[in-house]
Amino acid sequence: MAKARNIMILGTGSDVGKSVLAAGLCRILKQDGYQVAPFKAQNMALNSFITPEGGEMGRAQVVQAEAAGIEPHVDMNPILLKPTSNVGSQVILHGKVLGNFTAEAYYKKKVDLVQQVMESYHRLEKQYEVLVIEGAGSAAEINLRDKDLVNLSMAGRVAAPVLLVADIDRGGVFASIVGHMELFTSEEKELVKGFIINKFRGDPSLLTSGLEFIEARTGKPVLGLVHYFTDIQIPEEDSVALDLKMRLAQARAKDQVRIGIVRLPHISNYTDFDSLEQEPSVSLSYFTSPELVFDQDLVILPGSKNTLDDLQYLHSQGIAEAIISFHGKGGNVVGICGGYQMLGARVLDPLGVESDLREIAGLNLLAMETELLGEKVTTQVKARIIWEELADPGEQVHGYEIHMGRSRPLGPTTPLLEIVERNDQPVHVSDGLVSDDGRVWGSYVHGLFDNDGLRHRLISHLKATGDVESTKEGLGSFRRWKEEQYDKLASHLRGHLDMDRIYQIIGLK
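Above: the chain sequence. Below: its structure as tokens.
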């Protein structure tokens, strides 16, 4: 196969829509018969995924791979940064932990990582016809230009034509586009082939003079005015979207069960709950106020990149006390990964893997304790549910593990499930625990609720215990629903982008 053609999506800032537009282009190219794959040299996110080979990568490129109809691979995101503090991150290289670095130490290291990034890119360009490359943040961060791995330096290394995306919804779109072009070098300007204005609302005719100004001032065409949409649901990669969800939370209907997720400071993998959010009979919300604990039928403690500090946050904010009281009054509580660890008697970090804290008391709702170790578990799993309340003897559930901790029981316990396969290798390992009263359970396995049968049984259980009467039809297949979203996104973009010119820019018919 000849070397792949490419196109790069850069932005005028974070959350302007680069990831979603890249996913949409991947789906369009797939629909048009091309073998296409996503690529992002460096991603910073706490939402990650485990590939079939056991490698960890950013969720955004997983979504784009799904849109392209292919299996995700760590070469699509060779470097993943998972922030552990305001000045440091765990660095994942080719799917495995490289170490924890301060920002200063990482910037010194970045020069040595160019070769690894390019090795991943070259492997992909031998396998696919087109690569859709995504940048990060603003493309005009001139203070980082000499250490850039992911934006215009990447475009230059692979001779990728660039589309610059700007978000008109946040305001200042003309200044943002023109200002970025003014900050680019002459060589960088040559790479830019056009602009996409994203998240537009209103009458397009009112924007005509502004578009003419941009084209006259920069000499580059505006290739699309993408209208704002609310009816297409594409997973987001960072907490910006999560905070927006909190602001737009709506009151639940009487025929819905209420599921509340604690918005932890270091929340990770909140995409675990996307399938629940789409269920018509579920009202799902994220919260930080302890008073809101008591409004729920089920409270979920999600994953965390810093379990000890987030557990300390729960205690300091009164959320831990509220959850314990909620359970005492008959409430249901679930923990996933880091949230599961928080449900035990204590969490230990003797090696300082995640925090300066070495030990902290948990919520003591499950008879176990957790110790964080130096080795990270990253596996895809298949399992069967053991706990009879959620079990289906003929069903196998799928998910993935990402954790540094090992939890041990403190007495007789009931496991939630048995893992029967890790990374395609047969095993027999119990996972998770269920409390004696059946109202508290947890697991290390991410993606449990994406399993349709398990999700539907959980909702039915909550309806029965919460005395909720609902005649709403369930979501059905979450996988099929996601495919529908990618197709809807592709259709939307075809209606608002000049795809003929974009194909010419890529060099395709």
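The longest strand covers residues 368-385.
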